[in-house]
Amino acid sequence: MSQLTTHILDTTRGKPAQGVSIVLYSQQEDAWQERARGTTNQDGRITDLLPQDELLALGTYKLKFLTQEYFDQLGTTTFYPFVEIVFSVQTQEHYHVPLLLNPFGYSTYRGS
Predict the structure, then answer these.
(1) Which CATH architecture describes the domain 4-108?
(2) Which pLDDT tens digit goes with each residue over 91-102?
C-alpha cells in the first residue's frame, strides 16, 4: 500500500464509486505539479497511487477527483464536474483521504 490512499463512496447509491480518475498534485510555490494518476477499483479505492517505497515530501498536496465522467456513466446530472481536496503532509506517516460523494454535495475527512 502506498503512503497515500483514497476511496470514494457514492452516498446516493450507497456503493463505492468505481472507475473515477484521480490526479495527485504537489504545490510548487504558486503552481500545481502533477505527481500521480489513478482510477478507483471496484471497491472505490486506490491503494497504489504512489509506489510502495515512495514517500511524499512535506508540503501541500491536492487530490482532484474527476467526477463528471462517473456521473455521466450513471446518467445522473451533477453540480460538481470535479472535486479538489487540498491537504498538508506534515509527517512521513500514512495518509488516507476519503471522499463521500453525491451529485449535489460531498464531504471528506482524514481517514486512517
Answers:
(1) Sandwich (2.60)
(2) 999 999 999 999
pLDDT tens digit sequence for 45-80: 999 999 988 999 999 999 999 999 999 999 999 999
User: Counting beta carbons within 10 angstroms of the beta carbon of residue 91, is it exposed (0 to 12), middle (13 to 18) or buried (19 or more)?
Assistant: exposed
Note whether 77 and 55 are within 8 A (CB): no
Is residue 41 within 8 Å of 86, Cβ to Cβ? no
pTM, two decimal places: 0.95
As a whole number of angstroms, the distance between CA 68 and CA 71 comes to 5
Count of beta carbons in the 10 Å neighbourhood of residue 107? 10
CB 64 within 8 A of CB 83: yes
What are the domain boundaries of the chain? 4-108
DSSP 8-state assignment for residue 76: -
Query: 66, 17, 74, 4: which is closest to 43 by C-alpha?
Result: 17
